[in-house]
Amino acid sequence: MRAVKQSRAPRLLCVYQHAPTPGAPGIYRHRLLFAELVRRGWQVDLVSTPLNYMTGTVPPRYARRLYTRESLDGIVHHWVWASRSIHASKLRRALNYVTFAFSSSLRAVTLRRPDVVLVSSPPLTVGALGPVLATRFRRPWVFEVRDAWPESAVSVGWLSEQSLLYRVLERIAHRLASRAQAVIVPTPGLIEIVRRHGAKKIDVISGAVIDAPPNPKVRRDARARLGVADDECLFLYLGALGAANGVDTLLDAVQVLSADTPARFLLVGDGSARVALEERVREQGIEAVSIVPAVPKDEVKDFLAASDVCLHLLRADPVFSSALPTKVLEYCGAHRPFITTVVGLPEQLALEAGGGFAPSADELTDELERWIAMPAAERRARGEQSFEVGSRRFGLEATVSALEAVLRSVSK
Length: 412
Known about the structure:
- This protein has two domains: about 10-210 and about 395-410, Rossmann fold (3-Layer(aba) Sandwich), CATH 3.40.50.2000; about 215-395, 3-Layer(aba) Sandwich (Rossmann fold).
- Strands 3-4-2-1-5-6-7-8 form an eight-stranded mixed sheet, sandwiched between helices.
- It has helices at about 30-40, 90-110, 125, 130-135, 150-155, 165-180, 190-195, 215-225, 245-255, 275-285, 295-305, 325-335, 345-350, 360-375, 375-395, 395-410; strands spanning about 10-15, 45-50, 65-70, 75-80, 115-120, 140-145, 180-185, 200-205, 235-240, 265-270, 290, 310, 340, 355.
- The protein is about 40% helix and about 15% strand.
- The protein is built from 16 helices and 14 strands.
């Protein structure tokens, strides 16, 4: 592998399937980190699909196009085609993974030669492009593992550990982790799992907390639009509504609350379970709960401003005990305390940040009642604590410096 020439800007090529298009709902972690790399002098090519993972739709600007190129925050985005209807069935989702791997590889191999290649998994089909692109460009590659596959597929009921497909995916995960020049993970809890996959060099590159305190006027206007009274405590869940998210636990907890409890619950997101959740709310008359489809990123701040307490929900599974979802960092940046249902790292962070922990529906009911009864001033103070802890542990400068160190170390 050739060393990076210091006389020119270093170049990064990243393949990450789920980067959101401008303003679309989704996780902006990569764009945030890469934009800072660009400010530090890097050139970045990012290959993704415009198909939104949460909604399963493609914005009109990108529809009926096999390829679109645009520059966002200095990052050159290469949007390539992938099959749709990802929430229709497991087969359609698998087809989406395969078609993106094919189309992204066709585009990536034609780009300018990078100094280092970064591929982000899941899905593992993207991870498989790492050695392909490294061989094509004769450059080192870094493997990002955002979630433990195939272990997570078992936790949500998509796969059985005894199945042939599980064994095949496990072999692929081991091959990729053991052959990459470096492996990065977004949370410390994934280190041991990735080490079992054969990784030798592992670094933690989390998301970043960005200071976004709510504007009082935005808060008043948003609560008025939502019909939330001043004396009501608004709980907000922001993110995917899928099989892994355990939103039914929240509905179970809310159903136990008294009908005159001064609280509202707002779920903002999309996913494979949204329709079923909407049907349950309607059929069982859970009037305190409202579900809003995923909204553009610019509108998320209105919901955060309107909220008093945020929610981090996942199914009970050991795999999730190591997870640090980006939504938690967004809650911290918005100066909001949050309650988690997940034991382990999320529990530790929530409690350190002044929030709460409730792993079961009964415990969640008690925790909700505690926050509802809490004086508004104390909830606000805990929101400031959430921001202080989040910004101290997950600041942008330190996070990007850690990423840059990994990229430079493998390209020497």
